[in-house]
Structure formats: C-alpha cells, structure tokens
Amino acid sequence: MAGIPFVREIDCRYGETVEVSPLIRRVVANNPGPFTYTGTGVYIIGRGTVAVIDPGPDNAEHFDALKRALDGETVSHVLVTHSHMDHSPLAHPLAKWAGCKVYAGGPVIPTASDVRLEAGDDLQFAPDVTLRDGDTFEGPGWTIEAVATPGHTSNHFCFILKEESALFSGDHVMGWSTTVISPPDGNMTDYYASLEKVRARDLSTIWPTHGPPVRDVAPFLDAYIAHRRAREAAIMARLEAGDTLIPDMVKTIYKDVDKRLHPAACHSVLAHMIHMVETGSVKATGKMDLSTEYSPKA
Questions:
Q1: pLDDT digits (tens, 9 = 90+) for 226-240
Q2: Which domains does the chain have, with CATH numbers?
C-alpha cells in the first residue's frame, strides 16, 4: 500500500452528532473493527428536511443516537451505498420510524467463502426503490445524485452532494485503507471502471462511510488506482517466475504481511487474476478460483 497518502485521523465521538460541513452532519456507530475502522459513519444531509446515508447496524444504542440527531426534522430519503451488515440493517427500521422509503441498488451475489473478508452480506435487505445511475434526490438547499459504482459489490452506489461537490463513497474509496474486492460479487474489472468514473468528476471531498474524509481528491484517486496496477505487476512477475497457483504467489507478494491475513490476500489476488484473464494478459485452466493454474498468455 506504499504510495497512497492515507488519512486516518478522525473526530470520533460515538453517538454524538458532529457537523462536518454546512450541509453535512455525521453520527458514528460504536462498531469499530478491521473492516469498519472506527465505526460506521452515518451522514445526515440538509436541515429541516434531510436525507440519511448508510444508517449502519441495527443496534438499539445507535438507533437512539440517530433518533436524537433527527429530532424535529423530516427524513425524506434513506439512501444505502450497498448491502453489507455495517451499512444497511438499520435502513428499514429508520425509514419505518421516519415514514419514508429506502433507496439502494439491487441484490448482491452471496459470498460463499471460508474466509471472512468483510462485515458480511445483509441477505435480508431489499430496497423499497431500486436505484438507477443518475437518479437525483432533492431537499431544501441540497441535491444528491446517485452514481453506480460496482466493484466492491455488484450493487454499490456512491452519492454526490452537488452543492458541495462531495462524494459519499461508502466502501468504494476509503481514506484509511484500500477496498476489499472479493469474487464472486466483487469484480475488479468493474472496480477499475468505477474508480475512473469517480475520478472524472470534479470533487472537492470524499466522505467514506468509515474513517475520515479525503480532501486532496485527485492525487488520492491517482494513487489508489496506481496501487492496484502495481499489484497486478507483482502478480505478473510471479507468473513469469513460474508460480501457477495463487497461494504460492501470495507467499512471495505478501511475505511481509501477517500469515493469518494470507487467506484474505488470496481472494484479493483472485479478483486481480480474473481481471487479468478478462483483459487478455493471463490464461487460466478451467474455472477461475484459488485452485486454478494460471500462466502468462503468450
């Protein structure tokens, strides 16, 4: 991950409502962990009539904190970036309490894996309204555009607050870490395209669901993409050295990483490998998984 200008400092006061910009308030759930960093940051957009992005886990203490933050206001939209357990479970309870609808992408492909790479799929979740790329939502003084960004999951959406040129990135881009891409629902080809799509927008700030904002957007995205390209170069080097199996490549590429993380690293390399086969630089024998043999394409 060398070269990415990570930002990791965050004002994290669990259960409190913190105004982070003229139009944005944030409430952080007390669910820190290896995939959530300091916890799920729930964003409240506007004043009076508001939208809520990524309500987070269905936890009574966290729900009470959101109710306090929203006291006296009207919630017109509950928006969800994707259906993982740290993002979507509270969406419907909140919408029912507020008397509005839940908006999100369609269903995911359930991840059947012996390696826990994420907070887990919220398989009970379905939106009231399925988002389409370019959908817009308005309230007094605010306009939000839905931007389809598959890659981390197939149903991932980001949201742009037009008045502040601010992107609510969910798990698509995070300031504190790179993003997990795990097949079959995670797709590296889609992820590259979504990163380029976001990079083409004139953004002032990125607000991830976990961790602090990214203020210097263009260099950060450039480095984020360069990191992925460097990982593919390392994979190709191992293929050219004669490694054919992903677990063998991981032993070398991730030799300085705790071996307990190597199973997760294998899934990351698999996502890259599928992309490299799709783009024609690598060939595979049979179904692409962790037991497949791979080689450079002549």
A1: 999 999 999 999 999
A2: 17-215 (3.60.15.10), 225-296 (1.10.10.10)
